[in-house]
Fold this protein.
Amino acid sequence: MNISGVLVHAHPRQAESVREQLVKIPGVEVHAISPEGRIVVTVETGSTGEMADTVLMCQNTKGVLSASMIYHHDEDISDDDEFTETVTTSNIETDQGQDWSVQEASK
């Protein structure tokens, strides 16, 4: 399964028309539209190739100025497998100057 977050930028006057076209693309879900024409989209597909094709379809939609993948997650987990990943970002400075870590678990 491939899940991607895509930021689509459309001309503000065409944003609603672009949204209507994007939701017709299989695997595309629109979550938000800003007054400036930025559209937050997720794309879910079965393979990386399908993901690339779907993002390209978003880019080629009439009224779209740009479409940028800002997040991509690809996993091949069967129902019996459990995936746990811990990411520690001790090299990253935060506003508070503290280290922080993120733990993600999925089944």
In short: The chain has two helices and six strands. The longest helix spans residues 48-59. Strands lie at 2-10, 28-33, 38-45, 64-74, 83-88, 101-106. Confidence is low (pLDDT under 50) at residues 88-107.
